[in-house]
Design goal:
Elements (H helix, E strand, L loop, with lengths): L35 H7 L34 H7 L5 H5 L4 H10 L10 H16 L24 E5 L2 E6 L6 E3 L12 E3 L4 E3 L3
Parallel strand pairs: 2-4, 3-5
Antiparallel strand pairs: 1-2
Helix pairs in contact: 4-5
Length: 204
């Protein structure tokens, strides 16, 4: 043209169409070739929370140590048979009964061993039963009562014995409280029994 520029014209009427030698490659599904922006979408936002959940607390409560109750006394058969002559077997076997407490005392009572003297064992057992039935720990006069080392004839309030058998008992105004054990009636040698001035129930 007038400005010195030129125009290049190519007549492609005889040109052959040339196909590209390489086909465009389809986007790869491999995560390694994913666009950066797409990877950013998969990345979690920063957090200050721990990545590991805390340990779950135990579902069971801590075990509390429970004191082991003392074993129930098994009364030796020889003693049981003697005491069963004055007390019922159910009472003797019941750990909450005064009879069972008195039987425990009798088992430990060396003064009545070897238990071949039935009257002595029964007499000491019945006196122990009177003690446990009427709140013996609250008695005003209880010194030496149930003392294993002494004869029952030397216990306080036992005023008289004849041939080892209790004859006179003075327990008046001594703060006895509770039921009078019916077994007291088995002390057949007792001639005088003073229980006046106490809080007792029942009959002999």
């Amino acid at each position: 043209d007038d400005h010195g520029n030129f125009t290049l014209s190519i007549d492609c009427g005889a040109c052959a169409t040339v196909e590209p030698t390489h086909h465009p490659t389809a986007p790869s599904t491999d995560s390694a070739t994913e666009p950066i922006w797409n990877s950013a979408v998969l990345t979690a936002s920063p957090t200050t929370s721990p990545t590991i959940s805390p340990t779950i607390s135990p579902t069971t409560s801590p075990t509390t140590a429970i004191p082991t109750p003392p074993p129930t006394l098994i009364i030796p058969a020889q003693i049981f048979d003697i005491l069963a002559q004055v007390s019922s077997a159910d009472d003797l076997n019941d750990p909450s009964s005064a009879q069972h407490q008195a039987a425990r005392w009798a088992v430990d009572d060396k003064s009545a061993n070897p238990y071949n003297n039935n009257p002595t064992l029964v007499q000491r057992y019945v006196l122990a039963l009177l003690y446990y039935s009427t709140n013996g720990r609250g008695w005003e006069r209880q010194a030496d009562f149930l003392n294993h080392a002494k004869s029952e004839c030397q216990w306080v309030s036992i005023d008289e014995c004849i041939d080892g058998a209790v004859v006179t008992m003075d327990l008046d105004h001594n703060n006895l409280a509770g039921p009078i054990p019916s077994e007291l009636g088995s002390l057949t040698k007792v001639k005088h029994l003073d229980l006046d001035g106490n809080s007792l129930t029942g009959t002999i």
